[in-house]
Amino acid sequence: MGKSILITGGVRSGKSRHAEERTLVLGQPAIYIATAEAHDAEMADRIARHQARRGPEWRTIGAPLDLLGALRDTDSDGAPRLVDCLTLWLSNLMLSGQDWEAASDALAAALPDLRAPVVFVTNEVGAGIVPENALARAFRDAAGLVNQKVATASDELWLCVAGHPLKVK
Amino acid sequence: MGKSILITGGVRSGKSRHAEERTLVLGQPAIYIATAEAHDAEMADRIARHQARRGPEWRTIGAPLDLLGALRDTDSDGAPRLVDCLTLWLSNLMLSGQDWEAASDALAAALPDLRAPVVFVTNEVGAGIVPENALARAFRDAAGLVNQKVATASDELWLCVAGHPLKVK
Amino acid sequence: MGKSILITGGVRSGKSRHAEERTLVLGQPAIYIATAEAHDAEMADRIARHQARRGPEWRTIGAPLDLLGALRDTDSDGAPRLVDCLTLWLSNLMLSGQDWEAASDALAAALPDLRAPVVFVTNEVGAGIVPENALARAFRDAAGLVNQKVATASDELWLCVAGHPLKVK
């Protein structure tokens, strides 16, 4: 069965770059599964910078909501997949009123049955002061739970600190 | 003397569940020392979910302010104690105008003399951007200091990341 | 060549105290390179508390902007330097309109050529919820990048958790 790896860390901790390196070691060409949608200029700029850094060894597909479907659709050819990132996927699910708990449970339950490897990027968003905004509190609670579910179902868990990965599991 | 263990991490990082598992390994039945007070519906809901997850192997007592007193009162029978959590205790001390520095110094100083083991849960609240709110800044400074004092007096220190504990000490 | 060490962590995680200990092991007397400027009473109070903790084995110089110049000026006598901290240096650069990317690239590029050791303190500011304030978002992105650059050019990288250092590299 395909290996699953979760890479977490704060913003600009080198998660995406490390995840790309890990994915390309697992096989080339690789598939980049983008969960981001360019809602505003700041996000569009960030997506463009990320794409510019990746080279021709990547094929990119978008999966803002149906992440498990995208993983299943790309599972047969054995190419490693990079999912960047789980917190944006969660945000898309919440904003579109979908059941993020059921979706993340289904994702975690399906991981052991995937044949091709998958590397997930996620974010640490719960190590600051409690936000005054109730939606922000709900989001960081949900992000922590999604990270736990996927980490438990994954073979490896890494925490990126200042660009360097620290093995947790 | 009883072992002391401090388990820290961001919100929803699996701290409480890991602390419960560690405590029950140290002995059963165990004593759950709750520092939370149900000030609002959101907190009441969180407390109820935590209690529902714990089973009959737990006896629960509340200690929103006199945590050291609760530890001393429950020290003679040898049952392990789980304190959940230090940041709520600190918040209660600050809100009631008590001297949290003296209280946390006394707690740390007393730890080596306790006979029954104790597992503390606390929160990482200082890895986000500097809050604009002065009280929030004071709280995260205080939480960091309390965590340092208790960690230094404890035998073990663990950081939970996405549900998985990482040994720091 | 002089060893470079980067020590990161959340607020009140014991970074400065640990960095001072590491620096004094590398040689005495040591040079404290302060990047802080006392803009307000809260910061002045924090600087004063930090200075009071340090003893006569330290010589203090200020380098709010030209950090690389200060490192070069103090490089010939071989005394270890402690830079506290990179995030304040970054903040000073941004507030004065200087090119922080060029400055941090130059700093990272120069590190391998320094003869005397240097210990850097920095802050984890990117593990909370995304700030609503655009300047705060830009700052935490920049801080993450500066930390990555300096960590990559350093020989050691440590994460402080509740007063205890965890080796990342």
UniProtKB/TrEMBL annotation, chains A, B, C:
One of its GO terms (biological process) is cobalamin biosynthetic process. Pathway: Cofactor biosynthesis; adenosylcobalamin biosynthesis; adenosylcobalamin from cob(II)yrinate a,c-diamide: step 6/7; Cofactor biosynthesis; adenosylcobalamin biosynthesis; adenosylcobalamin from cob(II)yrinate a,c-diamide: step 5/7. The active site is at 50 (gmp-histidine intermediate). GO terms for molecular function: adenosylcobinamide kinase activity; ATP binding; cobinamide phosphate guanylyltransferase activity; GTP binding. It holds the Pfam family CobU. Keywords: ATP-binding, Cobalamin biosynthesis, GTP-binding, Kinase, Nucleotide-binding, Nucleotidyltransferase, Transferase. Belongs to the CobU/CobP family. Catalyzes ATP-dependent phosphorylation of adenosylcobinamide and addition of GMP to adenosylcobinamide phosphate. This is Bifunctional adenosylcobalamin biosynthesis protein. It comes from Salipiger profundus.
